[in-house]
Amino acid sequence: MFGYYVWLAGRSLRRNPVLTALMIAAIGLGIGAAMTSLTVLRAMSGNPLAFKDDLVYRPLIDNWSPGRPFDEDSGEPPALFTYKDATALWNAKEARRQAAMFPNVLPLEPANTEVKPFMAQALFTHGDFFSMFDAPFEHGGGWDRAMDESAARVVVLSKDLNDKLFGGEDSVGRILRAGGEDFTVTGVLRRWNPQPKFYEPSSGAFNDVEEMFMPFAIGIERELQSSNNNNCWSDPGNGYKAWLASECIWMAYWVELEGSADAARYRAFLDGYQAEQAKLGRSVRPQNNRLYTVSEFLKAERVVSRDSQTQLWLAFAFLVVCLINTVGLLLAKFLARASEIGLRRAVGASKRSIFAQFLSEAGMVGVAGAALGLLLTWLGLMGLRALYAEGASGTLARLDLGMVAITVGVALMASLLAGVYPTWKACQVAPATQLKSN
Amino acid sequence: MDIKPIYSALMRNKAGLALIVLQVAITLAVVCNSLFIIVERSELVARPSGMDEPNTFRLASLGFVRDYDLKSAVRQDLDLIRSLPGVVAATLTNSIPTSNGGWGTGVDTEPLERGTGKEAHGAGMYFADEQAIEAFGLKLVEGRNFRAEEITDSVSESGLLFDSVIVSEALAKKIAPEGSAVGKVVYGISDDTTPKTVIGVVERLQMPWTGSGEVEQSVLVPTRNLGDNFSMYVVRTEPGQRDAVMKEVETRLQAANPGRIIRGVRTVESVRADAYRDDHAMMSILFGVMAAMLMVTGAGIVGLASFWVTRRTKQIGTRRALGARRFNIKAYFQTENGIMVGMGIVLGGLMAYGFNAWLMSEYDAARLPWYYVPVGALVVFFLGQLAVWGPASRAAKVSPAVATRTA
Fold first, then answer.
1. Chain A residue closest in CA terms to B293
2. Do B245 and B285 share a domain, yes or no?
3. Closest residue in B to A318 (Cα–Cα)
4. Does residue A315 sit at the B interface (CB-CB below 8 Å)?
5. Cβ-contact B401, B317 below 8 angstroms
6. Residues B293 and B362 grouped into a single domain
7. Taking CA B112 as the corner, what is the angle to CA B108 and CA B115, rounded to the nearest 5 degrees?
């Protein structure tokens, strides 16, 4: 019977080709718009470290201006640390792993003189960075606490930078000249580019990971500040020593703990630390500290762009309009065939078989609409890449298999939903009245 | 035309009516809010930065060799750039408007007392020399420019050493709400307590951060920052010569001093395009959604109206046979559409404000000005009338003879 219904549906759909095209186009457009924006939003809302969400935490200490909260609307403490606080916490060793970090650029002079000197982005951080964030090594590894303490001249390279400098070879032990000094390569990462860049989203949550990593102490010895944000509520004074002693915030800080029970202990430690600072005469705000998991932190930092969220709502409103449209057209179409339904019912077709017949017709529109929707999603993502280029919505506008499955699912669900009411109405046609009136 | 029979006929087809009303309502709500966001963004991206954008470019130089002599490198670079034909002016600075990276400072007419909660005025800070105003292409509206002998050298240990500043007009108004800012003493720029005198006002100069609420507030300070080996040059050229000069400057600077890296060679226009790329994208997307929505809704009305006309062929024929003129039939369908769309507009108007209120609370959107809904309503109303035009005309052509046939 199903084959027969499909044949009937095909005939009926061909009878009004414009109308059929209109219904398919409406479903396709709606699905295309909704799925395009959903793809971007889904990528933005990711948490690359979800598997360690109960282990890795971002502490926030509110050592901002005593006279004024950092964020007057939300009351949230600043996300970044002062040098003072970062080193105090690192020295306290209260967590299983801990790392402070800030980015800057260093000029590289490749040994291969055919490659011109160029600037590379460096993240100055502690050795725990790699194990805490499960950064995968292709060759070698990071460095240990002793090397952090002695400011050892070591460097970990990203895969791309290693390709550029050493032709992709195992460069562990090789020398890299950076900023006028020699560094020994201790490790090369595999391709690793977590999106969002959860550990430091403030300068662009979907920026690429830095090209190389060096011990935190080297950045300090070289008297560098952050190339992202350096934010002061009080006059830091002149010179780098004064900068380090200042209340300016400019680095990220992360810890790995033993679990959520341990997190409660660490949270208490943070408050205790701040209370102690107050006793030592540092002017502090009322205690307002945080210990965020990665997902909480990404939420607090609002890494999902507001424009993308607005676009998603509008796209789904558009999808709803497209579906209502299809419902209306199907309804009109089915009811126009009341006499046909009446005749079929009168010669013995059950409500069930009428239902099956008309739902097949709605289903066919749905399948075609889903296919068109998938194509339009693909085109839409291409459009987003062109519009946003290197911007977050551009780099994240990629269709993966999961998204294809979701698109097909949503499209079929949506069109079945659009088909059910008109089909049900068609089944309500009373056979006798239809036969009489015509 | 008597509306009552049309209305009661509509009420007998509640499902069809509800579908059109809902569709029109959502369309109106989305069109109003999209249009509002588009207008808002287009105003945002149109704000002038104060620079002579079409004729200006910037580039950065970063010395990497040990003992890099930044001071003489800067001297030589500027001499070289300024000697090139086609160059109007060149300056050493730290940032440009719309680059979203730079130095910010607090400025106030009294020494700053930090931590007390008293807020100084925010300002973007640009290092400048005697050619800076010319190189940026700014318009000095009051006071005077920096003199060459006023330009100091600043290094990290010394802090920023200078006595005078030039401010943007927006900042001048904050410093001196009435009267002239020239001659006023301000604090907070190099540190909290050292006084600086305002010697000039430029008409417009945005701070580097396009998203700031104080974006028009900037201050030019007469010093060469020699604190690190990073220097940024801004070069203004004769009209039409920017691209050629830009290439020339890049090669000449690199050749003149191989102990550094030249990077970030970009026109101010392209820096600006980057800053507003997301806004332009948002505008295009909303425009697309709006257009697609109007099209789908319009096409849906055409489709539904056609069906209704077909279903009522006999009824129309009867009315014609009983004396209704073509005009009356057409008016019937146009009126019917007007009633349905009108209901949709009432609901959609409420939804438009509701959607806006929700965007305001969730995404810090601005309040939708009241006139967007009536304007949007007019657009949607005419769309409806236009969409029903074809089916209504077809209905009007139904022959009275139809009434006499059986099916």
1. A318
2. no
3. B293
4. yes
5. yes
6. yes
7. 130
CA-based nearest residue in chain A for residue B23: A321
B212 and B317 share one domain: no
Identify whether B201 is part of a domain: yes
Asked if A278 has any chain B CB less than 8 Å from its own CB, the reply is no
A307 close to B (CB below 8 A):
yes
Query: What's the CA gap between A47 and A299, in Å, rounded?
Result: 10
Q: Looking at the structure, do residues B166 and B305 belong to the same domain, yes or no?
A: no
What is the C-alpha radius of gyration for chain B, rounded to an integer number of angstroms? 33
A19 in contact with chain B, both atoms CB, cutoff 8 A: yes
Assigned domain for B264 exists: no
Q: Using CB atoms, which residue from B34, B158, B282 is nearest to A238?
A: B158
For residue A325, list chain B residues with Cβ-Cβ distance below 8 A: 19, 23, 296-297, 299-300
Of residues B136 and B193, which shows the higher confidence score?
B136
Residues of A in contact with B16 (CB under 8 A): 328, 331-332
Segment A82-96 mean pLDDT: 95
Q: Which pLDDT value is given to residue A433?
A: 66
Nearest by CB to residue A66, choosing from B115, B297, B365, is B115
Chain B residues within an 8 Å CB radius of A315:
289
8 Å CB contact between B189 and B121: no
Give bridge partners of residue B63 from the DSSP assignment.
B260
Of B23, B117, B300, the CB nearest to A68: B117
Q: How far apart are CA A214 and CA A106, in angstroms?
A: 11
Looking at beta carbons, which residues of chain B come within 8 Å of A320? 26
Minimal C-alpha gap between A377 and chain B (Å): 14
Same domain, yes or no, for B178 and B111? yes
Per-residue pLDDT tens for A245-289? Answer: 999 999 999 999 999 899 999 999 999 999 999 888 887 788 889
Task: Please state the domain count of chain B.
Answer: 2
Region for A64 from its dihedrals, namely left if φ exceeds 0, alpha if ψ lies in -120 to 50, beta otherwise: beta
- Cβ pair B115:A333 closer than 8 A: no
Contact between chains at B261 and A119 (C-beta distance less than 8 A): yes
Mutate to test the interface with A, among B307, B310, B313 (most CBs of A within 10 A): B307
Tell me the pLDDT tens digit for each residue of A198-224: 999 987 888 899 999 999 999 999 999
pLDDT digits 0-9 by tens, A165-202 = 999 999 999 999 998 899 999 999 999 999 899 999 98
Cis omega before residue A103 (within 30°)? Answer: no
In eight-state DSSP terms, residue A117 is P
Tokens linked to A346 = 């009168």
Amino acid at A205: A
Of A118, A180, A310, the CB nearest to B65: A180
Q: What is the pTM of this model?
A: 0.88
A79 close contact with B: CB closer than 8 A: no
Residue B175 in contact with residue B198, Cβ under 8 Å?
Answer: yes
pLDDT tens-digit profile of B25-47?
999 999 999 999 999 999 999 99
| B189-to-B93, B95, B115, B225, B297 alpha-carbon distances in Å | 16, 16, 17, 14, 57
Q: Clarify whether residues B281 and B366 are in a common domain.
A: yes
Strand bridging mode B56-63 / A137-140: unpaired
Q: Pairing state of beta strands B152-154 and B218-225?
A: parallel
Same domain for B215 and B309, yes or no, is no
- Residue B263 located in a structural domain: no
A306/B contact by beta carbon, under 8 A = yes
Is the pLDDT reported for residue A355 higher than 80? Answer: yes
Residues B251 and B297 in one domain: no
Is residue B52 in a domain? Answer: no
Give exposure, B360-387, as e/b (b: 16+ Cβ within 10 Å).
eeeeebeebeeebbeebbebbbebbeeb
* Nearest chain A residue (CA) to B113: A234
Q: Complex ipTM, two decimals? A: 0.88
Domain ranges, residue B339: 3-46+277-404
SS3 B300: helix
